[in-house]
Amino acid sequence: MEISVVAAAREDDSPVEEPLRVAAVADRLGYGEVWLGEGPTWDAFVLATAVGRATGGVALTAGPVAVSVRDAYSLVRGAASAAAVTGRPVGVALGTSSKRVVEGVHGRPRVRPAAVLEETAAALRALLHGEPGEPVVPGSGFRRRRRPPGGPLTVAAFGDRAIATAAAHADRMLLDVVSPEQVRVLRAKLHDAAERAGRTPPRMATWVPAAVDPDPASLTQVLRGVAGYLTVPGYREMFAATGFGEAVDLARAGAGADTLLRALPAEAAATVGLIGAPDAVRARMEAYAAAGLDEIALVPATAGDPGGERTLTALAPERRDLSRRTPPRPSAAGPCR
C-alpha cells in the first residue's frame, strides 16, 4: 500500500503557511506524493507550484478542485503551468465540493453536481493527453505550447454516480474520511462500475486524519474535522452505528461546532483516522490495506505538531520498511504476565 501526504486539506484555523511546512517535512522524510487541496485560502495550482519549487522531488497533485467553479481547460492549463515551472509531473483531482463552498464562497450555482463531475472528468481525461501543436481544445484555433502535466487524474467519490465517473475516467478514485469497513464496500462498487465501463479499476486512495501520540490540541483538531461529517449521508449512519448517535442527533438539529466537539469522545477520531500510539496506528493501516485500499493519504494533525513532524516521522517510509524487516526481539526475561 502506498502512503502519501495531504499538505492542504479542508479549511481550518491552521496558520496560512502550514501546507508549505507539511510538504517540506513530507519531502524530507521520503514520501512519494503530496496533495494540495483547494479551499477559500489557497489556489491549488499556485500552492502546488510553490511546493514544487521548495522541495526536492516529491510528486504533486492539485485538488480536489470543485468542478462547479472551474472548466476542464482551466484545470489542465493550471496543471500544465505548474508542471512547466516545477519541472515535475502534476496530477489533478476533481470533486463536487459543497454548496457552502461553491455557492457561499464562489457565488456559483451548485446544480447537477454529479453530471458536471462526469462531464468535466471526461473532458479532462482527453485534454490531459494532448500534445504540443494540437488545438488547446477541439475546434480551437489556439495551439498547445506546453506538454501535458503528466500526473494522474483523480476523482473524489462516495455516491454511486461519482464512483461510476471514477471507474470510467480516472486513474485513481479518492475517498475522504472513511473506515476500513466502508473501503471494502466502496471498493466492491468501484470494481462493479469499472466492469460495466469495460476498464481496469482505478487505484483507490483515501484521505485519513493522522495523529501519532496526539496531544490534546492535535486530537481536538481531528475531532473538529470529523464533526463536519456528522450530517453527511453515509457518514452519519456509520457514526451512529459505532456509538456516536448523540453527536449525530445534535448535528442534525443544527448544533454548533463547539457543542458537537463536546459530544464527540476521543474514540470517534479513531473510527475514521489513524490516531494513537505508533503500533496502534500501523495496525490500523494494515486494516485499511486488508480492506483493499491501494493508498493512504495522511492528513497529519498540525495543532500541537507543527508541520505534522511527529506523525510524519513516525510513519515515514524508511521507518515502515524497517518495521517490516526487523521483527521485535524477544525479551530475555520472557513474556510479560
UniProtKB/TrEMBL annotation:
One of its GO terms (molecular function) is oxidoreductase activity. Pfam families: Bac_luciferase (PF00296). The keyword 4Fe-4S does not apply. Its EC number is 1.-.-.-. It comes from the Bacteria. It is an enzyme of class 1 (oxidoreductase). SUPFAM superfamilies: Bacterial luciferase-like. Keywords: Oxidoreductase. Residues 301-337 are annotated as: Disordered. Residues 6-294 form the Luciferase-like domain. This is LLM class F420-dependent oxidoreductase. It comes from Streptomyces heliomycini. The lineage of its organism: Bacteria, Bacillati, Actinomycetota, Actinomycetes, Kitasatosporales.
